[in-house]
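Person: Please comment on this record:
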Amino acid sequence: MKRIIHSVNETSNYFSCVFEGKLTYFYLTKAQARKYMTYINKGHVVDFEIYDNQKKINRRLCWQVAYFNKIEKPGHQKTSVLFDLADIRNQMKEVLEGFQYRLFLDLEMTMPPYYKGPFEAEIIQAGYVLSDIDGNILVSDSMYIYPTKYKKISRRTEKFLQLDERYYVEAKDYTEFYDKLAYLVETYDPRIIVWGKNDMIALKASYQINQVKPLTTDHSFVNLLQIHKNYYNLSDDLGLFKAYELYYGKIEGQLHDAYDDALVTKKVYEALLEEMRNNYV
């Protein structure tokens, strides 16, 4: 719907518009308020969607805002666009299309034991797929990694990741993973695509645990989960395999395997790009 804002309550994060001849109220969640409230002023024109649920705020029945399509500030000579979802989505497409090399990375980490005690999560499996701008796979690998700080892997970790004797036979020292990642970063300078923040945090922590020079910064990464949340206006996190099913249909089973997850991340990335290209030329 597209309406002119009649009034705004900045303290309680709601605004009103005239709808079907009546003053109707709409509220923003705290997260939405942090993002949009600076644009919400009396007289501004808002194009937005709502959820089919209401709650009382200050004795007023308010509809929950789902997301905004556009927010405009009318002027005497021209109208200023303060927020435009279509423009943002188009910018996302241009950014994602522009990476010459993409390193799809997934990491599995140790989990704390069932009993309390000192613990710090460490990388114990890495899977990655390096592709060029056309999606061609140039390098792919998967490896188990021995933890450095806490050598004993908890039963909880073994059970969750379904680790068996193969892990203890095939696992390598962290330095081997580090050297392979260093080669990829120095040779291709790829943008590293991950699902969520956990892998970024774990990789950063691994540099400190192993006392090595960081190979990446925060700008090295693209959080594909956050891109999805922004693109589809999602308030809750979306699982990687749920995102896969969004594009490709139901997937049978889900193993906690870093290499498989890296491949799925690549497929989800490419499907999102296709969605963007179909809607934003």
